[in-house]
Design goal:
The structure holds two protein chains of two kinds. Chain A is an all-alpha fold. Helices cover 73% and strands 1% of the residues of chain A. In chain A, a hairpin with a 2-residue loop joins strand 1 and strand 2. In chain A, helix 2 packs across helix 13 and helix 10 packs antiparallel against helix 13. The relative contact order of chain A is 0.13. In chain B, helix 4 packs across helix 11 and helix 7 crosses helix 9. The radius of gyration of chain B is 25 Å and the shape is globular. Classes of the chains: A mainly alpha, B mainly alpha.
Chain lengths: 281, 281
């Protein structure tokens, strides 16, 4: 076989697949969003933005990401540092920290439903401690704040693992000598973390933050399990337009909005956390 | 003299001991944070329906299989479970079948367009991929793929394929090319060398990335809910019955989603970090 053609032959299946099931539907969704009955129009976007739920939807989604992602970043850094310094039980801790990685957002929502439900474990704890005398309704339609808090906790619980894994892998690539040298010169653990680990971890931090921010805009099943329709988010509204309201053009417009926000934030973080070529390890 | 010299040493030793203690305590606390919610869900799943809806709750399961047997015998659950397994298995086969050759090509050849291909694969991560299910729903109706396991598996493969490419790329890169060259000089063809030397070495890692693809499909909610109606997967089934199903059905369903995930992550724990280390870059 011709050696020059071989790599292209090996790439062909994956490339064709991504063209048919990634590029093509992407073009389709963009097309559906700006047309109705074959004619170009912006009505779909107007219908989307005109819905009474829309402002709350956008606000909830962005607010969730803004609260959840920084907390996750801090927790993931803490977990990764702990794991890298732990001597006994290192692999057990790693496995346990990584468990949520395999758990779906729907299951995570149900897990936290078991805690926050009116007959759930939080109410049991509170009433056995004598803090409340009868079960509180945390997830009713009148308690948007507690629904929001429950979703935040569930999201932090579920999706910190992905950042942790990326950061642990990144820390593994930092040569030990740097830390040893810093220790010899008397740098304490905190100083070593800020001056050595963080700067050298930048490529991993970039990946982790981008991936996590994009996933945060896709929040859907956690909210569906905990709040139903009481806490509208973008992905849930897209689902509603497609399914309940049976309007796939507006659903496409909504999908395009999520895409635009995701791409916008990706470019933003690529720029802000840019890693110069010569600084890579 | 010696007492003066020893004092600071003892102080550092004490500080270090306190630091170690703090480290272990934090690690245990974080493990509890991850495990406790899962435990509470399992308590619910292993309790009778009366215990699940009753109040106050006990923090130990009553080991009554009422909830689980209700769940298993509930109309549509067995089928949904089967569909989940079927779709995830197809996703696993498709993403490794398409992804592994691409990963091998990226790790072994230098060719024009290599950078572009890698960039394209990386970029797919910046898109909320489940949204692609929206336009594909129409395309699938035209081609008769709507509401089928293979149709959904194709969308899930779009999610899993980029990971399969990057993970197998890192796997093959970790196997010295000299091994292959040695086999060639001993008279093996390229294919024989790959099959007899490289494949056995890469197989455990490929199996791990296959499990990873399985997990991605097993957990996916949005595309499954959009693309399946009669042939729902377990996640789509649970999502669509969230509003009306009783609590114990939700919790038993949640447990059915979580337990396999625990096993999957355990199965790939050795590879989790190595896979991400290079998939990062």
């Amino acid at each position: 076989m011709n050696g020059k053609a071989l790599p292209y032959l090996l790439l062909m299946p994956a490339t064709l697949f991504l063209c048919v099931f990634f590029l093509y539907p992407f073009v389709l969704v963009a097309f559906e969003a700006v047309t109705r009955d074959g004619a170009f129009t912006l009505d779909n976007f107007r219908a989307m933005a005109g819905s009474w739920k829309f402002p709350a939807t956008v606000r909830n989604t962005l607010l969730l990401a803004a609260i959840v992602v920084p907390i996750q970043l801090a927790m993931a850094l803490l977990m990764a540092s702990i794991v890298s310094r732990l001597e006994a039980g290192r692999s057990a801790a790693l496995y346990i920290f990584a468990i949520p990685l395999g758990i779906s957002d729907l299951a995570a929502g149900l897990i936290w439903l078991a805690i926050f439900d009116q007959s759930g474990f939080l109410n049991t704890l509170l009433s056995s401690l004598g803090i409340v005398d009868r079960p509180v309704m945390f997830l009713g339609y009148q308690s948007k704040l507690t629904i929001f808090i429950a979703v935040v906790l569930a999201e932090i619980w579920r999706a910190t693992a992905i950042m942790m894994v990326i950061l642990v892998a990144g820390m593994g690539l930092i040569p030990r000598e740097y830390h040893e040298a810093a220790e010899v010169f008397g740098a304490g653990p905190w100083k070593r973390f800020v001056r050595i680990t963080l700067p050298l971890l930048r490529p991993s931090l970039q990946t982790a933050i981008i991936l996590r921010v994009i996933l945060a805009f896709e929040v859907f099943a956690v909210v569906a399990a905990l709040g139903g329709t009481n806490l509208p988010v973008l992905m849930g509204e897209t689902y509603n337009w497609q399914f309940t309201l049976q309007d796939r053009n507006v659903a496409a417009a909504s999908a395009l909005l999520i895409l635009a926000i995701s791409i916008g934030f990706t470019l933003f973080f690529l720029r802000v956390l840019r890693v110069p070529k010569e600084a890579r390890i | 003299m010696s007492a003066v010299a020893e004092a600071p040493v003892a102080a550092t030793a004490d500080a270090r001991k306190a630091g170690d203690w703090l480290l272990v305590a934090t690690a245990i606390l974080l493990c509890v944070w991850v495990l406790l919610p899962i435990y509470l869900l399992i308590v619910n799943a292993l309790s009778s329906p009366q215990d699940v809806t009753g109040f106050p709750k006990r923090f130990f399961p009553s080991f009554d299989l009422g909830s689980l047997s209700f769940f298993i015998n509930f109309a549509g659950v067995a089928r949904a479970l089967w569909n989940s397994v079927l779709v995830a298995t197809l996703t696993m086969i498709l993403s490794i079948g398409f992804g592994a050759p691409a990963g091998y090509a990226l790790s072994r050849f230098d060719f024009a367009g290599k950078g572009t291909f890698r960039f394209l694969v990386l970029m797919t991560r910046a898109f909320p991929l489940p949204l692609l299910a929206l336009p594909l729903a129409v395309m699938f109706i035209r081609t008769g793929l709507d509401d089928t396991a293979i149709g959904l598996a194709l969308v899930h493969t779009t999610l899993a394929l980029p990971f399969a490419v990057l993970i197998t790329f890192s796997l093959f890169s970790g196997i010295p090319v000299e091994l292959e060259e040695a086999a060639w000089t001993l008279g093996c063809t390229r294919w024989q060398a790959f099959r007899k030397v490289i494949l056995p070495l890469a197989l455990p890692g490929i199996a791990a990335s296959a499990v990873f693809a399985f997990t991605i499909s097993w957990n996916e909610v949005f595309a499954a809910a959009v693309l399946t109606i009669e042939n729902r997967t377990l996640t789509a089934f649970l999502l669509q019955s969230l509003g009306e199903s009783p609590l114990y059905l939700k919790f038993a369903g949640g447990a059915a989603l979580v337990v396999p995930a625990l096993i999957f992550i355990f199965a790939v724990r050795k590879y989790l970090f190595a896979m991400w280390g290079i998939a990062n870059r």
